[in-house]
Amino acid sequence: MAYRQDDMTAPNGTGDARRDRGIATRAKVLDAALKVFQAEGFAAASMDRIAACAGISKMTIYRKFADKEALFLAAINRHCAQIYAVNEHPPAASIEEARVALTEFGWVFADAVREQHVLDLYRMLLGEMQRFPQLGADFYDVGPARSIAVIENILSRVMGGDDARLRAEAFMHLVMGDRHQRLLLEKAGKEDKAGTDAAFRAQVDLAVRMVLGL
């Protein structure tokens, strides 16, 4: 998907300022686009509505994105990358070090994926994947695949080889679990936040023990 880029070069030392403004404007457009797409869906969302939400002209959007489809894909991919922004972790030198690293990762991840805006993103992806077949693959690459790679690296020294990969995949599934599916499908009921937090923490702890064989 081709994006149109502003000319970021300018004489008299103004290039950096123009580039910074361009980056800020692009971020504003993507934030507004995500908000409108999540609220209205791809088909109903209009470039006029997105421009109004961003507080800029529609022409400015078209200078940066060729069409609504390009804008949609850019907004989704950026949001996925933000949600799944995970720090690299060196291979654990011991089972105990792996336990600590996986527990920390699992708690942060479980907190992130049950945020309302993340659940809304999952639902929108499911609704638009038929229109955009590549969207699911892009989401997997910037999201789950990156997380699995981090976990695999943590386990690589204490588990090694294919076993580390399989355990990393299992860990992700165990952390997400049935409770996330219920939240995604709005079947979790009216659980209080403290109760939900405790349940996810227990789920993470169980996942750590099962993956490490503790």
Give a structural overview.
It is elongated, with a radius of gyration of 21 Å. It has helices at residues 15-44, 47-54, 58-64, 68-83, 95-113, 116-128, 133-142, 144-155, 161-184, 193-212. The protein is 74% helix and 0% strand. With 214 residues, it is mainly α. The chain has two domains: 13-75, Arc Repressor Mutant, subunit A; 85-212, Orthogonal Bundle (Tetracycline Repressor, domain 2), CATH 1.10.357. Helix 1 crosses helix 4, helix 4 runs parallel beside helix 7 and helix 8 (144-155) packs across helix 9. The chain has ten helices and no strands.
List the helices and strands and how they pair.
Elements: H1 15-44, H2 47-54, H3 58-64, H4 68-83, H5 95-113, H6 116-128, H7 133-142, H8 144-155, H9 161-184, H10 193-212
Helix pairs in contact: 1-2, 1-4, 1-6, 4-7, 5-9, 5-10, 8-9, 9-10
How many beta-strand elements?
A: 0
Q: How many discrete domains?
A: 2
Radius of gyration: 21 Å
Helix count equals 10
Name the quaternary structure.
Answer: single chain
CATH architectural name of the largest domain: Orthogonal Bundle
Order of helices and strands: HHHHHHHHHH
Tell me the structural class: mainly alpha
- State the name of the first-level CATH class of the largest domain: Mainly Alpha
Strand content: under 5%
In one word, what is the shape?
Answer: elongated
User: What portion of residues is helical?
Assistant: over 70%
- Compute the average pLDDT: 82
Q: In CATH terms, what is the fold-level topology of the largest domain?
A: Tetracycline Repressor, domain 2
- Uncertain segments: 1-10
CATH superfamily of the largest domain: Tetracycline Repressor, domain 2
Query: Largest beta sheet, briefly?
Result: none
